[in-house]
Amino acid sequence: MTETKSRRASWLALLLILLFWAAVILLDQIIKPTDKLYMLLTVLQKGSVYALAAVSMNLLNGYTGLFSLGHAGFMLVGAYTYAIFTIPSTARDTVYQYYNAAIRVSFPEIFSGALGGFGTVLGVALAVILAGLMAAILAYLIGLPVLRLKSDYLAIATLGFAEIVRAVFQWSKLGPITNGSNLLKSFARTSTFKLSIGEMSISLSTFVPVLIATLSITVIVLIVNSTYGRAFKAIRDDEVAAEAMGINLARHKMLSFVTSSFFAGVAGATMAMVLSIAQANNFKSAMTYEILLMVVLGGIGSISGSVMGSMLFVAASEWWLRGLDSGRFLGINAPGVFRNGFRLVVFSVVIMIVVLFFRKGIMGERELPDLFRKRKKPAVKEATE
Amino acid sequence: MSEKRQILKVENVTMQFGGVVAVNDLNLEVEEGEIVAIIGPNGAGKTTAFNVITGVYAPSNGRVYFDEKCVVENHPHGKQKKLYMGENADAYSRVLEPTPDQLTKLGMARTFQNIRLWKSMTVFDNVLIAKHLHRSSNLFTAAFRGNRKEEQRQRQEVDELLEVVGLTDVRDELATSLPYGKQRRLEIARALAANPKLLLLDEPAAGMNPQETQELTRFIGEIRDRFQVTILLIEHHMDLVMDISDRIYVLDFGKLIAQGTPAEIQSNEKVIDAYLGVVDDAENT
Questions:
Q1: B95 with B75: CB under 8 angstroms?
Q2: For residue B127, what is the nearest residue in chain A, using CA coordinates?
Q3: How far is CA B254 from the centre of its chain?
Q4: Which of A20, A161, A214, B245 holds its CA 20 to 30 A away from the CA of B70?
Q5: What is the reported pTM?
Q6: Of B146, B173, B195, which closes a domain?
């Protein structure tokens, strides 16, 4: 690819992202909670959280070829870290009603004292980054023994560690930090984020998760297209050849694992922000499977595929197929059939169809721009043959 | 004339798998700028020797020097001590088992008997990844394009290399879509991209017809002259071996049975008995 061409592509990508952000902010102002379309905002919020989680899982499973199932565990660490460090001091004692809260720091409060509104933003941002770092540190420790394993064994080991993490966070002895099996709440959440310009107040409740997700996914895209990303792909394609060509397997697998977990932690923090609670019980292995499903639906090894997969998944489960649970779907009124749980039945059938007929997912290994580029290729090939 | 630098020296290397001694007390030396071939019947331990030299296996006993430094050393210890059936069991005492990537960093690069290209990547990317080991960037600087200059230089080098090996026209094709001969060529190009001092080719002409073999023979000679690289190769095509090798080592049942120039090897009784006799027949037909 020539230099000018790739530069033009990056400018175009930047422009599209900015337009998307503007559209999200605009939608957030227009759509009222009572509107039917309000579901769209929910989907955008949750969808971007899951998109980030799926893309970070794809970095590990799709690009490095390490089949890990510990994602929910790292998201949990991220969610808790974020929650603990953003609970305001006034709410702390009600949240930790059964324990004596050990960590008495709230980042947004520290910084808002000196810097006002900007300080709050800075505090939240720092808490999100810290959430990622905690998940990354945990990943490093778990990775030391676990990354020696391959394929299914690695999957089982990481799955086990994720469950251990969940159990530890619910342990009553750690109550002063994690609040035991009770939930954490009252911390900085998306619905409170507003931008006030004079009289006007602009709600950012959808924009913030979208912003975090797009920034993080952009970084992952940059990593994937860098020399390290190529090394990861080499490990996935042929480990023996990769090692023979001077790629340090242990180091690169660890890098991929830690980076992936960092962004899983960020996704966890964002999830806490969106749901406005953090509870260990939500981060069961079922969540990992959901994310894996999104990755597979979108196409293993495709970042735009993962984003589409998670948006579609969230839209289907939260919005389009909701009617199947509540008696009325596509205008058909049949409360006898369409009742609680029927949605999941339909959902499983849809997934089975996708897996059977679109084996490589929506995108396969292609990215969104490839769809516009590839058209010309076959013609050139015919000419040379 | 001064003594030439010794690029590779294998000293008393024995490789034992369970009760099978695949390589037994192997000694060989390769000097800078030479093309050296290892030949021998199937199962003689040629590829095993390669795998020991490149760090895929740690030898049961023996030492490997690369560029006049000891890089691999092992001796029978632990459970191996009782089971060891080779010679020189007490000659060494250190354990030095580098991983293949560390040896590649020192300046060794290899190709594989059964082609091992990265399947999902283009020809260009396959070669570009070999440049990864000479990076100066870490994950952060690479992600935020702090290594732009280095990356540009590497891409240019790869393009030049592809030009030299004649793969420019298939630059953006998937590696696995190439015809067999070109895949072999690509694997050699990938190894060269790592800027090795020693290039190890494991049966580069396997599965090639006579014409392709001839092309490859010329190609290997060109590489040596152009990249100033020393070459150690395993091969069954005797035309190729006799044509380009400066010296030949012959292995049979893991033991070295002869060494010398192609002319010496061709007239060596032992070698004809063990191996070459078959080739003579083939040549007469």
A1: yes
A2: A245
A3: 17
A4: B245
A5: 0.90
A6: B195
